Backbone:
C-alpha cells in the first residue's frame, strides 16, 4: 500500500480509551473502595472481598459473553470445580493452597475444553440451555456425591490462602491477596482484549461470517474464550473457598448465575471496567437496602430486570454517554 | 498463470440447476466482473468460489491449487478474501479496529503472546497500527478511525469492508455487489478506490448489477444467464454481444438470486 | 437382580410424571411458536399451580375442582403479566435473546421469592382428587391420581388440538407461528397473540402443577427442575406439536424411572440433564433450526 502521507494512528478502542480522565475517575473510585476496605472493620472487608471474587468471576464471563458474544448460563459449574477442588486438595490432602489453586484451574480448563468442544457448536437458546444444564448437573453432583463433597452439609476447615511459610492469616491479608489476583486478572483481560486474539474474538461477536472470511478460526477461538472464562471462574471459586473457609452446593447454585449476570449487565457488558463496577455496586446493594430485609433478593431482581429492559448497556454505557469519546 | 480458474462448475439444488458447466479464468492483476440478470446464478458461483458450499461438479483452482470443497477460513487463509453483499462489519468495533482484524491472516500470535507481550508482538502491533492508518488513508476513512463502525453512513461502511479485506493482503479480492444500495456519488468513490486497489497489484473479481460501474472499471467481463456462461470479453465486446443484449432485453423474470 | 414388579412400578410412575413434563413442554412450544422466545421461567407456573391450589384448599376450604378452576386463570394472568411487563418491552427494544432468557430466568426467581415471602418455605401437598386406591394390578400399584393425570393430560391435548384447529384465536396463533409478518398483514393481532400464548402456556403449567402435587410435593423452589424437564420433553418432541412434546415427556419420564431403578433416586436429575445434552449435541444445529429450514423451504 503506497500512500502519499503517513500518519500515526492513535490506537484507541471502542470501549476503553478516549479521555484519560475517565480512567482516572475509575481508578480513583477503585482506590477509594480499596482504602475504605482496609481502614474499616471485618464486615466491610468481607463484603469487599466477595465483591472482588465476583469481579474476577465476571471478568472471565465477560470475556466469553461481552467480547466473544457467546452465552454461558453455567459458569457456576467451573466455580464449583475450583471451590471443591481447592477445598479437597488443601483440607484432605494437605496441598499448598496456591498449588491447589493452579491445579484446579488447570483441571477446570481441561473440563471446559472437553465440554465446550461439542457444546459451543450450539447457538442461541440451545447454547443457553445446554450451558445452564452444565451448571445444574454440577450442582446436583455437588449435592448427591456426598462421599466427595459432603453434600448439603458443605465442606469446612479449608485453610486460608498462602504458599510455603507465607499465609494470609487475617481477613485483611486475604483481601490483599485477592485484590492482587483480581488486578492481575483484569490486566490480563485488558491485554487480551487489545490483541490479535482479542480483536478476533470481538470480531466473532460482530459477525461470524465475516470473521471466518478473514481467516479467523471461529470455532477454535470460541472454545479458547470459553476456557479462559472457565479459568477465571475456577480461580474465583478457589478464592471463595479459602476466603470463607467453607463451601456448600448453594454457594455455586443458580443464584450465582443470576447474581453474576446482574453484575455484568449493571456494570456494562463488553467493557473492562463493567464487571468491576457491577461487582462492587451489586455487592454493596444489600448494605444500601438493609431496610428491605427479606425483600433484598426481590430488590436485586427488580433492579436486574429494570436494567435489562431500560439500560442494557449498564453503568459503563451510561459513562460512555456522559463522557463521550473523542472522534477522529 | 491464472489467479483463479473456474473449471466446469455445476451446482444443483434439488432439481434446480443454479450453475451449469461454467468455465472461465481470472488472470493475475486484472479486474474481472461477472454480470447477469437476476437469478442468473452469480451469487451461487461466488459462494462456491469462497467456500460457502462445494460445487456439485467441477473444480475451482486458486493460485495453482484446487480449493473447491475447502472451508471458508482455510480459503481465506490462502489469500482469497471476500466481501458481502449485505455489509458484515464488526459493528461494536471502531473503524480502525475493523481494519486491524483484517490483518489476522498475515499476522501471528495467540493468547500467550497477548499476555506476555514479547517485543516481536509489540512490533507487530505497531506495524498493524501504522498499516491500518495507511489503509484508512487510502480509502479515505482516516477521519473516522475511532468511530464505532455502526455509526458510519452506508457508503462508508462499504468502503470499510473493502479496507478490512485489503488488510488481509489478498491475492484475489472478491467483491459481492459492492455498489448495491449506494448512490451515484458513493458509487463513483467506490469505483475510484477499487481501481486504486487494483493498481496496487491486487487481482479483483466482482459480481455486480450496476452496469455503469462494471463497464467503467472491469477489464474483462463474463455474462451468466440461467446458470450458463453466455459471453466473455472486454466491456466493448460485451456491450455489443447479441446474446447479452437478448438476455438483458428479453424478459428475464427468473427466480431470485 | 432387578425386581420386575418394582421396575414396572417405576415405569408407571415414569409415565405419569412424563405426561406432566409433556404438558410443561407444550407450554414452551406455544410461547416459542408465537414469539421465538424460549421462556426459561416456564417451571414457575408449575410451582404456582401447586402452591396456589394448595392455599385455596387449605385456607379457603374450597373443593378441589373449584380450587383448580380458580387457580388456573390466576396463573394464566400471572403469565400475561410476565409478557406485558418484561418480555414485550425487551422485545420492542430489540434486546438480545440472551438478555431475554436472563430476564425470564430472573422473573422466575422473583416470583419464587415473592412466593417464599407470602407462603413460606414449607413444602405443601394435598390429597388425591379422589380418595382410596391404589388399584393393584399384578403387584403394581396404580394410584387413582395416575388416572387423573392420564385423563386430564389426554383432555388437555385434545382441547389444545380443538383450540388450534377449531377456534379463530387458535388458528390465528398457528398462523403467527408459521409466518408472523404474513399473519400481521392478514389482520391477525400478533401482539395479542403473544399475550395469549403466555396465558395459555402459564395455564398449562398450572394444570401440570395441580395434577402432580398430590403424588409429589410442591414448594417455592420446584420450578427449575420441572421447567428443565419440560424443555427436554419439548426438544425430544421436536419443539413443534403438542403430541410431540407429550411423547417426549413420556420418553423422558420412563428414562428417568429406569435411571432411578438403576442408579438410585438422587441422580435422576443428572440423568435427565444428560439426556438433554445428548439430544442437543446430536442435533448440533438444534431441532428448532431444522424445523425452520423446513418451514422456509416450504415458503
Residues:
Amino acid at each position: 500500500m503506497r500512500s502519499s502521507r503517513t500518519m500515526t494512528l492513535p490506537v484507541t478502542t471502542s470501549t476503553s480509551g478516549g479521555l484519560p480522565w475517565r480512567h482516572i475517575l475509575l481508578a480513583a473510585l477503585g482506590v477509594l473502595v480499596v482504602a475504605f476496605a482496609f481502614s474499616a472493620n471485618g464486615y466491610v472487608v468481607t463484603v469487599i472481598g466477595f465483591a472482588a471474587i465476583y469481579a474476577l468471576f465476571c471478568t472471565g464471563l465477560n470475556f466469553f459473553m461481552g467480547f466473544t458474544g457467546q452465552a454461558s448460563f453455567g459458569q457456576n459449574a467451573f466455580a464449583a470445580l475450583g471451590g471443591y477442588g481447592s477445598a479437597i486438595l488443601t483440607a484432605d490432602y494437605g496441598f499448598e493452597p496456591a498449588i491447589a489453586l493452579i491445579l484446579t484451574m488447570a483441571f477446570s480448563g481441561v473440563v471446559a475444553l472437553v465440554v465446550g468442544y461439542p457444546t459451543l457448536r450450539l447457538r442461541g437458546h440451545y447454547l443457553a440451555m445446554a450451558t445452564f444444564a452444565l451448571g445444574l448437573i454440577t450442582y446436583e453432583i455437588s449435592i448427591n456425591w456426598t462421599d466427595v463433597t459432603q453434600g448439603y452439609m458443605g465442606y469446612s476447615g479449608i485453610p486460608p490462602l498462602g504458599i510455603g511459610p507465607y499465609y494470609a492469616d487475617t481477613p485483611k491479608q486475604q483481601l490483599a491477596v485477592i485484590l492482587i489476583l483480581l488486578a492481575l486478572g483484569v490486566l490480563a483481560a485488558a491485554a487480551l482484549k487489545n490483541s490479535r486474539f482479542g480483536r478476533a474474538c470481538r470480531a466473532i461477536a460482530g459477525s461470524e461470517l465475516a470473521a471466518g472470511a478473514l481467516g479467523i478460526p471461529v470455532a477454535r477461538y470460541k472454545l479458547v474464550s470459553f476456557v479462559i472464562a472457565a479459568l477465571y471462574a475456577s480461580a474465583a471459586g478457589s478464592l471463595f473457598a479459602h476466603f470463607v473457609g467453607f463451601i456448600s452446593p448453594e454457594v455455586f447454585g443458580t443464584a450465582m448465575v443470576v447474581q453474576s449476570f446482574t453484575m455484568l449487565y449493571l456494570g456494562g457488558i463488553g467493557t473492562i471496567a463493567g464487571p468491576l463496577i457491577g461487582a462492587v455496586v451489586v455487592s454493596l446493594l444489600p448494605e444500601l437496602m438493609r431496610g428491605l430485609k427479606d425483600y433484598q433478593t426481590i430488590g436485586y431482581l427488580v433492579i436486574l430486570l429494570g436494567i435489562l429492559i431500560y439500560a442494557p448497556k449498564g453503568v459503563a454505557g451510561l459513562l460512555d454517554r456522559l463522557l463521550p469519546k473523542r472522534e477522529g | 498463470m491464472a489467479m483463479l480458474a473456474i473449471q466446469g462448475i455445476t451446482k444443483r439444488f434439488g432439481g434446480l440447476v443454479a450453475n451449469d458447466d461454467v468455465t472461465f479464468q481470472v488472470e493475475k492483476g486484472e479486474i474481472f466482473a461477472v454480470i447477469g440478470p437476476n437469478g442468473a446464478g452469480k451469487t451461487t458461483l461466488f459462494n462456491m468460489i469462497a467456500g460457502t458450499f462445494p460445487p456439485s461438479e467441477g473444480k475451482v483452482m486458486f493460485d495453482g491449487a484446487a480449493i473447491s470443497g475447502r472451508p471458508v477460513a482455510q480459503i481465506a487463509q490462502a489469500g482469497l478474501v471476500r466481501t458481502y453483499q449485505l455489509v458484515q462489519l464488526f459493528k461494536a468495533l471502531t473503524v480502525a479496529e475493523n481494519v486491524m482484524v483484517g490483518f489476522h491472516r498475515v499476522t501471528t500470535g495467540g493468547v500467550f503472546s497477548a499476555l506476555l507481550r514479547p517485543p516481536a508482538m509489540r512490533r507487530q502491533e505497531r506495524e498493524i497500527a501504522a498499516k491500518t492508518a495507511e489503509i484508512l488513508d487510502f480509502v479515505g476513512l482516516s477521519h473516522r478511525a475511532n468511530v464505532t463502525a455502526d455509526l458510519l453512513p452506508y457508503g462508508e461502511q462499504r468502503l470499510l469492508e473493502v479496507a478490512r479485506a485489503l488488510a488481509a493482503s489478498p491475492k484475489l479480492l472478491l467483491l459481492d455487489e459492492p455498489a448495491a444500495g449506494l448512490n451515484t456519488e458513493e458509487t463513483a468513490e467506490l469505483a475510484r478506490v477499487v481501481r486504486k486497489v487494483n493498481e496496487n497489484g491486487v487481482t479483483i473479481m466482482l459480481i455486480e448489477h450496476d452496469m455503469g460501474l462494471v463497464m467503467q472499471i472491469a477489464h474483462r467481463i463474463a455474462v451468466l444467464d440461467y446458470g450458463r456462461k453466455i459471453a466473455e470479453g472486454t466491456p466493448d465486446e460485451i456491450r455489443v454481444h447479441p446474446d447479452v443484449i437478448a438476455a438483458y432485453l428479453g424478459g428475464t423474470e427468473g427466480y431470485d438470486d | 437382580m432387578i425386581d420386575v414388579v418394582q421396575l414396572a412400578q417405576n415405569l408407571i410412575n415414569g409415565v405419569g410424571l412424563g405426561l406432566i413434563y409433556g404438558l410443561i413442554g407444550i407450554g414452551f412450544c406455544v410461547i416459542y411458536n408465537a414469539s421465538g422466545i424460549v421462556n426459561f421461567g416456564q417451571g414457575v407456573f408449575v410451582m404456582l399451580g401447586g402452591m396456589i391450589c394448595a392455599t385455596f384448599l387449605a385456607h379457603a376450604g374450597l373443593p378441589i375442582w373449584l380450587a383448580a378452576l380458580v387457580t388456573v386463570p390466576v396463573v394464566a394472568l400471572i403469565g400475561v403479566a410476565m409478557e406485558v411487563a418484561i418480555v414485550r418491552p425487551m422485545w420492542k427494544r430489540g434486546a438480545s435473546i440472551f438478555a431475554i432468557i436472563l430476564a425470564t430466568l430472573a422473573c422466575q426467581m422473583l416470583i419464587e421469592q415473592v412466593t417464599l415471602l407470602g407462603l413460606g418455605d414449607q413444602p405443601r401437598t394435598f390429597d388425591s382428587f379422589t380418595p382410596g386406591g391404589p388399584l393393584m394390578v399384578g403387584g403394581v400399584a396404580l394410584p387413582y391420581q395416575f388416572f387423573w393425570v392420564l385423563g386430564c393430560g389426554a383432555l388437555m391435548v385434545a382441547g389444545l388440538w380443538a383450540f388450534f384447529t377449531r377456534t379463530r384465536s387458535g388458528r390465528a396463533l398457528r398462523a403467527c407461528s408459521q409466518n408472523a409478518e404474513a399473519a400481521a398483514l392478514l389482520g391477525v393481532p400478533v401482539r395479542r397473540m403473544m399475550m395469549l400464548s403466555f396465558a395459555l402456556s402459564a395455564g398449562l403449567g398450572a394444570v401440570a402443577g395441580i395434577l402432580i402435587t398430590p403424588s409429589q410435593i410442591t414448594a417455592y423452589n420446584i420450578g427449575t427442575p420441572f421447567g428443565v424437564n419440560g424443555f427436554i420433553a419439548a426438544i425430544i418432541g421436536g419443539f413443534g406439536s403438542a403430541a410431540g412434546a407429550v411423547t417426549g415427556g413420556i420418553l423422558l419420564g420412563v428414562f428417568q424411572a429406569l435411571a432411578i431403578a438403576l442408579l438410585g433416586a438422587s441422580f435422576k436429575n443428572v440423568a435427565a440433564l444428560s439426556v438433554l445434552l445428548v439430544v442437543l449435541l446430536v442435533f448440533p444445529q438444534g431441532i428448532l433450526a431444522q424445523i425452520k429450514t423446513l418451514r422456509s423451504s416450504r415458503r
